[in-house]
């Protein structure tokens, strides 16, 4: 059969027209892609960034000066990491450090440390300090982001491309947190926006959400600062996305409420009404 280029030209399906129309109406999508984005109204890589901004505006879990170590689990494409970097004083609209100032760059997005340990020593922080890293200069604190997908670099954010559910990833995270926050190092805030690929099969999506929540909670037990050690009743915070379902409500009752001083369910305005997602904001880790 002769080659017909026209056969490659797809017509727009009705579903994509619906999607395009929804995007055009969506105020958060318009804000995100505004060509007038400036220092005052920066553009974000994801619509999700507005959810985090909105939740933090009300509950201020990122705003305290004692917040020094923040983990962003399921970070790509990077909207939440951008927000955290701004909150910790990393100005991503400012000129990024020149390569000559960054004797070794921040861990680059796309690097899988567990498979290429010779490329970067996560325990060597001399270059972060040299480039105005966590010890002052451009911003404060340590921000560590993890995703199994690639994420382009953000000033002030160390990115690990890895599957959070793999045991090796926790080993790597532990060494990064411990070294940069001191030997007894723990995270001040753990953010989790991870989601499996939605299948449309509610049973499967709930299972996925439960697996992620269980795993993040186990991790949190080992790596979060307690309210007592922070010296603030709401110190040590976990924000975790979940699929709204009675089983996740049981998860909250069983694991979150007994272990945090304050637990609340949030559905941000920026989260689409038809989406089944919600967030648990848990503040004040009691320490086990
Ligand atoms: C909703 S997106 C996060 C958006 C992000 N908060 C932002 O503002 O740009 C969910 C992310 O979770 C990641 N993810 C899901 N399961 C993961 C896993 N087991 N390990 C690492 N990342 C995972 C996905 O690759 C995806 O990038």
From TrEMBL:
UniProt source species = Mycena metata
- Catalytic machinery residues: 241 (proton acceptor)
Sequence segments annotated as region (Disordered): 91-118
Task: Please state what the protein is called.
Answer: rRNA methyltransferase 2, mitochondrial
The reply on keyword Methyltransferase is yes
* Domain of life the protein comes from: Eukaryota
Q: What is the lineage of its organism?
A: Eukaryota, Fungi, Dikarya, Basidiomycota, Agaricomycotina
* Location of the Ribosomal RNA methyltransferase FtsJ domain: 44-284
**A Pfam family recorded for this sequence:** FtsJ
Q: Which family does it belong to?
A: Belongs to the class I-like SAM-binding methyltransferase superfamily. RNA methyltransferase RlmE family.
């Amino acid at each position: 059969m002769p080659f017909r280029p026209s056969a490659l030209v797809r017509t727009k399906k009705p579903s994509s027209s619906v999607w395009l129309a929804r995007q055009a109406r969506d105020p958060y999508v318009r804000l995100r892609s505004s060509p007038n984005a400036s220092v005052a109204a920066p553009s974000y890589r994801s619509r999700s960034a507005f959810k985090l901004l909105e939740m933090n505006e009300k509950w201020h879990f990122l705003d305290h000066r004692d917040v020094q170590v923040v983990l962003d689990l399921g970070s790509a494409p990077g909207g939440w990491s951008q927000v955290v970097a701004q909150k910790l004083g990393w100005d991503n609209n400012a000129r990024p450090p020149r390569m000559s100032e960054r004797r070794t760059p921040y861990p680059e997005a796309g690097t899988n440390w567990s498979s290429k340990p010779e490329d970067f020593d996560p325990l060597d922080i001399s270059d972060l300090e040299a480039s105005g890293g966590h010890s002052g200069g451009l911003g404060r604190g340590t921000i560590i982001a993890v995703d199994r997908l690639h994420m382009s670099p953000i000033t002030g954010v160390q990115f690990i491309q890895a599957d959070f559910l793999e045991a090796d990833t926790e080993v790597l995270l532990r060494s990064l947190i411990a070294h940069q926050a001191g030997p007894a190092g723990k995270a001040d805030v753990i953010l989790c926006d991870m989601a499996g690929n939605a299948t449309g099969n509610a049973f499967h999506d709930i299972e996925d959400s439960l697996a992620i929540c269980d795993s993040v909670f186990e991790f949190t037990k080992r790596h979060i600062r307690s309210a007592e050690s922070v010296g603030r009743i709401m110190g040590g915070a976990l924000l975790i996305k979940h699929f709204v379902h009675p089983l996740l409500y049981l998860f909250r009752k069983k694991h979150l409420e007994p272990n945090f001083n304050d637990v609340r369910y949030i559905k941000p305005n920026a989260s689409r009404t038809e989406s089944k997602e919600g967030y648990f904001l848990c503040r004040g880790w009691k320490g086990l």
